[in-house]
Write a structure and sequence with these properties.
about 400 residues; mainly alpha; two-stranded parallel ribbon; 19 helices; 2 strands
């Protein structure tokens, strides 16, 4: 709805206002007349109509106060331009590319797009960036103010401008998928709506840019997430660890698609650039999915891929995942040493998977009292009901 409306307003704030007005109108109309057959279409129509009315009012004001208003592009021309943009065929993907405007810092581009375009709540955006909620709220507010102060227009990028924005767009889709895959809060382990949105965006990106290895890698990663979805929770909604999942429930067709994409992403010329972060993550996910059992996973190869990923993308979260792979190859003490080093990294101070990983490694070493302390520390950091149930179960 926001994507369709901003094509009229070319202004995010104005489009948000129109969408909110549409919801208010729905409260009144649907209470009186009942919910329409296609509520989404109804809301979009009302929001776009509100946007057109606002444009008309603006034109009237412009006519009345010609000396005070800067000349603007003709309304009809603005709409026709947006309707016939050839570079990006989908409203949602077009809006993601548009919001990843180079005038904003990378983190601001991604945070703003996640919040406004993808509908991720500010606390969840903060969790994705490993920062406190007030910090993220202030960052999003500053980005919006910069857009207004600098008069950055809603301008759909041309095809030649897409490569410069691609990394930010991939980051948006990846963080959206990560938020969906392990929801930081709520009663469900997976946010199905966000997961489907992320996968749709990744598929559209691949159609738009099929020769980009990073696009193929990201789509492969998300396909594996989708393939494993049914096995990640039990019948009561509880979290099931990867080693305990029923692999027969995994979607083998999606895994086969992911395999083909990983092969394509890693088949760059020998004299070309090394595989990027998404191609490597896609390869790691595909290796997990190909293993017939947890014990038969090719852990040495996964550790090697994490080494390459960490060299390319020195993220503390990647380092933590590498510690798990190292523990599977060299033993839990080796992984625990890596975790201990990461405990000094302030960026992971509130990251719930750090104490949870430590607890599992301690438990494998038979250090159950220390493991219990670490499980309690993880429990204090998560607002996810399935994760809380899992951690409480581990505490006995």
């Amino acid at each position: 709805m926001l994507a369709a409306t901003v094509r009229v307003t070319r202004d995010l704030d104005a489009a948000e206002d129109c969408v909110q007005d549409a919801y208010l109108a729905a409260l009144d109309a649907w209470t009186r007349d009942g919910v329409p057959a296609r509520p989404g279409a109804w809301l979009t129509t009302v929001a776009r109509r509100g946007a057109l009315n606002a444009l008309t009012r603006g034109r009237t004001l412009q006519t009345k106060l010609p000396l005070l208003i800067e000349p603007a592009q003709d309304e009809a021309e603005m709409i026709v331009d947006a309707e016939h943009d050839p570079a990006i065929p989908d409203d949602r993907l077009r809006l993601v590319f548009t919001c990843c405007h180079p005038a904003l810092a990378r983190e601001a581009q991604v945070a703003l797009t996640l919040r406004l375009v993808c509908g991720v709540a500010t606390p969840d955006v903060a969790a994705a960036f490993l920062v406190a909620e007030p910090t993220m709220a202030a960052r999003i507010t500053r980005a919006k103010k910069k857009i207004a102060a600098a008069a950055i227009p809603y301008a759909v990028p041309t095809r030649s401008e897409l490569p410069a924005r691609l990394d930010a767009v991939l980051t948006v889709v990846h963080l959206l998928a990560s938020t969906a895959h392990a929801a930081p809060s709520g009663d469900a382990l997976v946010r199905v709506d966000l997961a489907e949105r992320a996968l749709d965006l990744a598929r559209m990106l691949y159609v738009l840019l099929p020769a980009e290895p990073e696009v193929a890698g990201l789509l492969a990663l998300l396909l594996v997430h989708q393939a494993r979805h049914a096995g990640r929770t039990g019948g009561d909604g509880r979290l099931v660890r990867l080693e305990d999942q029923d692999r027969a429930s995994w979607d083998r067709d999606l895994i086969a698609q992911a395999d083909r994409l990983v092969v394509a992403a890693l088949s760059a010329p020998a004299d070309g650039p090394a595989p990027g972060r998404y191609a490597l993550q896609g390869a790691i996910a595909a290796l997990h999915a190909q293993a017939p059992t947890y014990a038969e996973t090719d852990w040495p190869q996964i550790l090697a891929l994490y080494d390459a990923l960490l060299a390319h993308w020195p993220s503390p979260v990647v380092a933590l995942n590498r510690a798990v792979a190292r523990a599977m190859v060299e033993g839990p003490e080796a992984g625990l040493a890596d975790v201990a080093a990461l405990e000094a990294d302030d960026r992971l101070a509130g990251y719930r998977y750090l104490p949870a990983t430590k607890a599992d490694l301690l438990a494998r070493l038979g250090r159950h009292a220390e493991a219990a302390d670490a499980y309690r520390a993880a429990l204090a950091l998560t607002d996810s009901a399935p994760e809380r149930a899992y951690l409480e179960e581990r505490l006995g």
